Amino acid sequence: MILSVIFAGFFVVFFAYGIYEAREFPRLAKIFPYWISLGALILAVIQLGLELRKYLFQIEDAQADFVDLAPDRSLPPRVVFKRALAYLLWFIGLYAGIWFFGFVIGMTGFLFAFLRYDAELTWGKTLQLSAGGFLFVVAISWLLSLYWPEGWIAQWVELPWPLA
């Protein structure tokens, strides 16, 4: 149970740091990160309080069988670990793609690969949803005049607007 407290505390620190960093941004640039971090910090503090209460008063977690998706406690720990590791590797791949290609290409590539190979969607559905994700990111950047992070590849290749 102490791990739950540490985990919740990590998010309190993480979102507090987000607020600290956003204070120095120009006025329009700080609206999104500041307010999202503030809202998330409030929720993280609430969660930390709940976790501390459970830890200090030794309150046992109730079984989550009352919700639609009951936890599957029959899976061996090895399977659970392999699945968790697979999703961690997906996120590492996402960040590597963003670092190498930039946000728009990296996110679109990640979405395509995840939908095709992990969700096992058909090629048609994968292409439709990936194109929709790409168009959503481009529309948001156009509407809010956002410039997404450029990738490492942008040092050598001049990419047109929504990609760079």
Task: Please tell me about this protein's structure.
This protein is mostly helical and 164 residues long. It has 2 domains: 1-62; 75-164, no CATH class. Helices cover 70% and strands 0% of the residues. It has 5 helices and no strands. Helix 3 packs antiparallel against helix 4 (103-118) and helix 4 packs antiparallel against helix 5 (123-144). The radius of gyration is 20 Å and the shape is globular. The model has no long low-confidence stretch (mean pLDDT 90).
Task: Quickly describe the structure.
With 164 residues, the chain is mainly alpha-helical.
Topology at a glance:
Elements: H1 2-22, H2 27-56, H3 77-101, H4 103-118, H5 123-144
Helix pairs in contact: 1-2, 3-4, 4-5
Annotation keywords:
single chain; 164 residues; mainly alpha; 2 domains; 5 helices
* Structural class by secondary-structure content: mainly alpha
Find the count of extended strands (DSSP E, 2+ residues).
0
The description of the largest β-sheet is:
none
**Using only CA atoms, what is the Rg?**
20 Å
- Count helical runs: 5
